[in-house]
Write a structure and sequence with these properties.
The complex is a heterodimer. Chain A is an all-alpha fold. Chain A is built from twelve helices and two strands. In chain B, the strands form three sheets. In chain B, strands 1-2 form a two-stranded antiparallel ribbon. In chain B, strands 3-4 form a two-stranded antiparallel sheet. A two-stranded antiparallel ribbon of chain B has the order 5-6. The chains are: A mainly alpha, B mainly alpha.
């Protein structure tokens, strides 16, 4: 495995970390308006309260790592997805503001406004993440210099939109399971009733997306055809999803959440395995695709970055784990809560 | 019709300038929170606990807006400056990624404990978390200044022909990190951050003193703020001079623009203030003859490089650089005076304005002074970044050549309008909530410090 491949994996890990962690808090946002009482909504907010901004750091660091390791891909993707990306950022910022400001004033209209902001920001954020991923699977038109030659509207084709809806569904399922873990009493009962429709919604959209991928994007499943053992990943994904209702109805919310996390990790792994070694596939002109060699920084930079990641990532994992440990258990509203 | 280059520059300036209101506050408040909490742990004085909790809440608000506004910056190199990103990613990207891995995770992770962990961890662990947040804020400054300094004084790289284009590739990581300007600029930036936050603490404390609220607590916080303000405002002169010497050596065009120096020669003057006549290539104003030569090279007869050594297309905008520089220095002088004023109040124990209108006036001056270090910080960045023009990487790549080929003026106008509106909203909300938190004050906190406040109210120094 050369340095380029190592960095493909490391950046995959960063973005997977982002999907698993920000995934549940985007999902909580998407479900937020389903809770009707003010106190319940505060519990929802505070379930992600101590961790949501730390979760977003995974995206920022993933972006930074992409910049350093594969600057061509970083430049191509973010300038190519310009308007979509700024809408995504606007949604994230608006969502952050909503979380931060909602409970600061007692007025009904104030809280209602930010509740809607939180929900919409989360929905749009999740949707656009999926749309971006869908476009990467589908391929985007690039010229010989690796510059995106399409328009904003070209990014919104049905396959990408389906990927967007799937990612919203995935995050809603993930968020509901997280909330089930963090709540108790009547609210927990209510949240438990959300989980089944969320799972059904996700399984439906995901099946459709898989079908569409098999039919229309043969390139994206070539690794599966070439190396049949990779079907183990698919089987594991299905098992992880199937395990969720088993754990929920066996009243083991922690294990249900771990299953949901495993689902996202496996989906990202499947995505990565099928993409490798391409970072940004060009469509229709496949020759212009950016792969981990064409898009990469020098070997020296990749080596230096590996040292940085080798020092930094164990520390990050250690204190991220300890923070989740400190804030384990049910949400308790105190005077420092949102 | 504005072109993409101008729109993208305006957008970068707007997002960076807005963002830069907040990180300096978290850097300095981080340090002061460590002091406050340490004092609480050492003395057991409930005032320090109330103070720590109050400023923790302000920190949380500042941090949230800082993250919200900063996330755009991490990606803007790719969205608007794709050619730049391709050119420098190999070098510049590693500093940016290091910031994410070493600083952001540390700061945001431990902030959760600082904000929400009061009753979940032991006081010692909470203090450790506060120290880590402070460290994270400082690390963040280190890496972002390393990255920016590399744009000012690039080092530790070579140019490599690659796929039809040229790009910079790293040759020595430590030469990149310790490039000629990074240490001086880091010190300058961190001191500026200390000033911004020290004056915030001073301002809020002075406000409480004027209003006769939380007096005991206000005096104690004021002292912490004043010590930091006096130290930083004085040290900033040493640091500023040292930073300017680096500019003399490595970015002569920027220095010439800072002083409006058109003609190279010995006994170059230093202007106290002035107006640049760009057409007539001279400066109208009050100047100290020879002072620039003396400061820049330590000798009156040493020639200082003027703008005449640079072709017109290689010169930065002169008026803006000149005025921003002089205004920054002027504000710097005011900050020394204001720190001295505060220390004098401390020395004479003039904390109670009742019946002493001039003490009241002095305290009001300190309340309003909070905007000055923020101004100085913004002006300093204008000098650094406008003075670097027309280069995006000094001497290597022109700003105009760093743009994204895929992005047209319409798209940039859209994102600029979108984020201008969002930032306006964000700033209004920030001010409103900051104002509310300050009005509520430390007294509204539940727990032991409420009883401490009640005890204080009975005493002579209370409300």
């Amino acid at each position: 495995m050369d340095l380029n491949a190592v960095w493909f994996v490391l950046i995959g890990i960063l973005f997977t970390g982002y999907a698993v962690l920000d995934g549940f808090d985007l999902g909580v946002g998407a479900l937020h308006l389903l809770a009707r009482r003010d106190k319940d909504r505060r519990v929802l907010l505070n379930a992600i309260g101590p961790v949501w901004d730390g979760n977003e750091v995974w995206l920022v660091t993933g972006g930074g790592a992409l910049f350093a390791a594969f600057p061509e891909a970083y430049a191509t993707v973010f300038s190519g997805f310009y308007i979509a990306f700024f809408l995504f950022l606007a949604a994230l910022v608006f969502r952050a503001v909503s979380i931060e400001f909602r409970s600061k004033l007692p007025w009904r209209w104030w809280r209602a406004t930010w509740d809607v902001g939180f929900c919409l920001g989360s929905l749009i954020g999740g949707l656009l993440l999926g749309v971006a991923l869908g476009n990467i699977v589908w391929g985007i038109p690039l010229n010989a210099e690796g510059v995106y030659t399409g328009r904003f509207i070209d990014l919104l084709h049905p396959y990408a939109l389906l990927a967007g809806v799937t990612s919203v569904a995935l995050f809603m399922m993930h968020g509901a399971i997280y909330l089930h873990l963090k709540t108790e009493g009547a609210l927990q009962e209510q949240i438990r009733s959300w989980i089944r429709p969320c799972i059904i919604f996700f399984v439906l959209t995901y099946s459709l997306l898989s079908l569409a991928t098999l039919l229309y994007v043969p390139r994206a499943t070539s690794a599966l055809r070439g190396q049949p053992w990779l079907f183990a990943v698919v089987v594991l994904t299905v098992l992880a999803i199937a395990n969720i209702p088993r754990e929920i109805f066996g009243d083991r919310p922690g294990r249900a959440f771990l299953s949901s996390c495993a689902t996202i990790v496996l989906l990202m792994a499947l995505f990565g395995l099928n993409m490798y070694p391409v970072l940004v596939p060009s469509e229709p002109n496949v020759a212009h695709s950016l792969d981990i060699y064409r898009a990469a920084s020098s070997q020296q930079t990749l080596g230096i970055m590996l040292i940085i990641a080798g020092i930094g990532m164990p520390l990050v994992l250690a204190y991220t784990a300890s923070i989740y440990w400190i804030f384990r258990g049910k949400v308790r509203l105190t005077e420092t809560s949102y | 019709m504005m072109d993409v280059a101008l729109l993208s520059r305006v957008q970068f300036a707007l997002t960076a300038a807005f963002h830069y209101v907040f990180p300096p506050l978290t850097i300095g408040l981080g340090l002061m929170l460590v002091v406050m909490e340490w004092r609480w742990l050492r003395t057991g004085d409930a005032d320090y606990r109330a103070m720590t909790r109050f400023w923790t809440r302000i920190f949380g608000l500042v941090f949230a807006v800082g993250v919200g506004s900063g996330i755009v910056l991490e990606f803007q190199f790719g969205t608007n400056w794709a050619a730049y990103s391709r050119y420098v990613g190999d070098v510049f990207g590693s500093a940016l990624a290091a910031e994410g891995i070493f600083a952001f995770f540390l700061e945001s992770g431990f902030l959760a404990i600082v904000l929400f962990g009061w009753d979940r961890v032991r006081p010692g662990v909470h203090f450790l978390a506060t120290c880590m947040v402070c460290l994270g804020a400082h690390f963040s400054a280190v890496w972002i200044i390393v990255a920016n300094s590399w744009q000012q004084t690039p080092a530790g790289f070579h140019l490599v022909e690659r796929g039809g284009g040229v790009r910079a590739e790293i040759t020595s990581f430590w030469e990149l990190v310790l490039n000629p300007s990074s240490v001086d600029r880091l010190i300058h930036v961190v001191l500026g951050a200390y000033l911004a936050s020290a004056f915030l603490v001073i301002s809020v404390s002075a406000y409480y003193l004027v209003k006769g609220r939380h007096q005991r607590l206000a005096v104690k916080s004021m002292k912490i703020g004043l010590v930091l303000a006096l130290f930083a405002s004085l040290a900033q002169w040493v640091s500023g001079h040292s930073s300017a010497r680096v500019v003399v050596e490595h970015q002569p065009a920027k220095l010439a623009a800072m002083e409006g120096l058109y003609r190279t020669g010995p006994r170059s003057p230093l202007h106290l203030f002035g107006w640049v006549d760009e057409r007539g290539e001279r400066v109208w104003g009050l100047a100290v003859p020879g002072a620039l030569s003396l400061l820049a090279h330590g000798r009156l007869d040493a020639p200082v490089t003027g703008l005449d050594q640079f072709a017109p297309e290689d010169r930065p905008p002169i008026q803006v650089t000149f005025q921003a520089f002089h205004l920054m220095v002027f504000v710097g002088a005011m900050l020394v005076a204001l720190s001295a004023l505060g220390c004098w109040l401390w020395w004479r124990k003039l904390w109670d304005p009742t019946g002493r209108p001039w003490v009241r006036a002095a305290l009001w001056v300190l309340v309003l002074a909070v905007v000055l270090p923020q101004m100085a910080n913004q002006l300093g960045w204008i000098v650094a970044e406008v003075g670097r023009q027309p280069w995006i990487v000094y001497g290597l790549l022109r700003t105009r050549d760093g743009l994204s080929a895929a992005v047209g003026p319409g798209a940039v106008a859209f994102s600029l309008a979108l984020f201008a509106a969002i930032y306006l909203l964000l700033f209004a909300l920030f001010l409103m909530l900051l104002d509310r938190k300050i009005r509520e004050g430390p007294v509204l906190e539940a727990g032991p410090e409420v009883s401490a406040e009640r005890a204080g109210r009975r005493g002579p120094g209370g409300e």
